[in-house]
C-alpha cells in the first residue's frame, strides 16, 4: 500500500546576505586612497515549485529543513560578492502552504511549474564605497548582510484524485479499488478500515486514465470530528466525480437506501459544495443472493424523490469479487470526468485578501521594538525591526556603531527608555551585545 501523507511541517531559511567590506585603495603615489569596499551578495531564496511527477509529501518526512546558501562577502577594489542561487524544492500539485500558527493560507500550488518564494534571501550589506560623502570621503562604515527569512511552514496536500470512492466501511471500496486500478490496499471488513486514502490509476481503454482515491470509510458524525474526523474528509474536496459505493447484499442487516442518505448527509454537513459533484451509484456485491431484490427496492425509494423530467443518478450493478459490470461503470466515469470542471477549494477573493494580510513583512505601524527590565536592573531591547538593524551593523568599526546609535534614536528607543526611567550609565542589552545608556 503506498503510504500517503497529507501534511508535513518544514523549516525554511533564506540565505543571509553577504557582508559589505571596509577597504581602501592602496595605490602607488596615492596617499590614503578612497574607499574600495564592495557590497555583499544577495542570499538565495527557498522556492517551492510544483512538479507534476510527485504525488505525496512523503519526501518531507525525511527532510524537513531547507536552507539556501548565503551570498558572498564584498571584497576590496570595489568588487561585489556573488549572489547565491535559489534553492528549489519540488512539491506535488495541489499543495497548500500554511502558516502553522495562524492557519492562514499563504499559497495554493495548483499548476505544474508554479512557484512560491517560501523564504526570501537577505540582501547584501553595503560596502564602504556606498557611504562616502564629500564631508566624509573615507568612511569606515560597512553593513553586514541582511539575515535570510527564517520560518516554519505547514504543507498540506489534498489528494488530487479525479474520482473519490465514498460509502460506509466494509461496502467493498478497497476490493473495488484493487480490481480497477494498480492500487494494493489492505483489505479487511472492520469498521475503520482505511486510515489513509489509497490511490490508484485507472486505465479505461485507449489511453484514457484517471486517478481514484478510496476515501476513508465515513462514519456518521465524521464532519463533527467523531471517528476519523475531518482530516480525512478534506481529501474529498478536490475530487470531481464521486463514486458512491453501496453494499446491496444487506448482509450486515443494513438498509442500502438509509446508508446512501446517511453518507450524503455527511457530505453536506462537511461542505455543501461536495453535493455539487456528480455522483455515480455503484451497487456492489451483486454476486450475493439477496442483492437483486435489494437493488430493485433501492431504485424504487431513490426514484420516488425525482420527477420524470429530472436527471436521475446513474446506477451500475457490479461485483468487485467476480468483476462483473465494472467496464461500463468505468467508461461512464471517464465520460463524466470529461464534462466536469475542476472545483476551486476556496473563494478566490477571500484567498487573495488572506494572502495579502499574511504577507511577510514588518508591520510598519507601531514601534519596531520592545523594552523589558531584567532582574539585574539592566534594560533589554528586542523586536524584529530593531534586531534586523542590529544584525546588519558591523560593530568592528566605530562609525558603524555611531550610525546604529542614530538609527535607534530614529526608532524612538532613547525617548522610550527615558520615559521608562532609564538613567545615564544604565546597562542596555540587545541579545549578547551590552552598552551604556547615555542621556
TrEMBL record:
Cofactor entry: Mg(2+)
Localisation: Cytoplasm
Tree of life domain: Bacteria
Sorted UniProt keywords: Cytoplasm, GTP-binding, Hydrolase, Magnesium, Metal-binding, Nucleotide-binding
Residue ranges of every copy of the OBG-type G domain listed in the record: 161-338
KW Lipid metabolism (keyword) present: no
Keyword Hydrolase found: yes
UniProt-annotated binding residues for Mg(2+): 174, 194
Record-level GO BP terms: ribosome biogenesis
Residues that, per the record, bind GTP: 167-174, 192-196, 214-217, 284-287, 319-321
GO CC entries: cytoplasm
SUPFAM superfamilies noted in UniProt: Obg GTP-binding protein C-terminal domain (SSF102741), Obg GTP-binding protein N-terminal domain (SSF82051), P-loop containing nucleoside triphosphate hydrolases (SSF52540)
InterPro entries (alphabetical): G_OBG, GTP-bd, GTP-bd_Obg/CgtA, GTP-bd_prot_GTP1/OBG_C_sf, GTP1-OBG_CS, GTP1_OBG_dom, GTP1_OBG_dom_sf, OBG_GTPase
GO MF terms, alphabetically ordered: GTP binding; GTPase activity; magnesium ion binding
Quaternary organization: Monomer.
Role of this protein: An essential GTPase which binds GTP, GDP and possibly (p)ppGpp with moderate affinity, with high nucleotide exchange rates and a fairly low GTP hydrolysis rate. Plays a role in control of the cell cycle, stress response, ribosome biogenesis and in those bacteria that undergo differentiation, in morphogenesis control.
Protein name: GTPase Obg
